[in-house]
Structure to design on (78 residues):
């Protein structure tokens, strides 16, 4: 089973995944990265009016395979 690492980055938070985890496919790893983004956004959106989050997916050789991102913002128009 492929082993993937999920590094998390935003303006205030940076976490390098040194353990990684096994996922049966690239699609499963992608879905996991998207869940990470959603979980962080759910918690952080209450404290900030703008978020720009990234999860970098690396393989067992530590090669970057993909970057999942999410931007959340609220701008008052008055």
């Amino acid at each position: 089973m492929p082993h993937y690492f999920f590094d998390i980055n935003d303006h205030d938070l940076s976490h390098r995944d040194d353990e990684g985890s096994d996922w049966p496919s690239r699609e499963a790893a992608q879905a996991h990265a998207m869940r990470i983004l959603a979980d962080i956004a759910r918690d952080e959106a209450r404290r900030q009016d703008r978020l720009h989050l990234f999860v970098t997916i690396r393989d067992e050789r530590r090669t970057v395979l993909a970057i999942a991102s999410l931007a959340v913002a609220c701008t008052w128009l008055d």
